[in-house]
Amino acid sequence: MPFARGFGIPELLIILVILVLLFGPGRIGKVAGELGKGIRNFREGLSGKSEDGDAVPPKDQDKKI
By the 8 A CB rule, do 47 and 39 touch? Predict the structure, then answer.
């Protein structure tokens, strides 16, 4: 099985060329930026902190019964 040994440099270059041909360099940059923002927001959500470093209370604690 060729996939068992992983991807090498030639395979990654071929994938990169195909992506550039399909989407163009500008759109790939936008997608990568949005992906980075999404990962950053996900990590902040897991840690419970906002961008300015303040702890963000869970939504349930804001409501009073």
Answer: no
Q: Are 48 and 56 in contact (CB under 8 A)?
A: yes
Question: What is the Cα–Cα distance from 23 to 63, expressed in whole angstroms?
Answer: 45
The residue ranges of every structural domain in the chain are 24-48
pLDDT tens digits, residue range 20-47? 898 888 888 898 899 999 999 999 998 8
- Which DSSP state fits 49? B
Decide which of 63 and 31 is more confident: 31
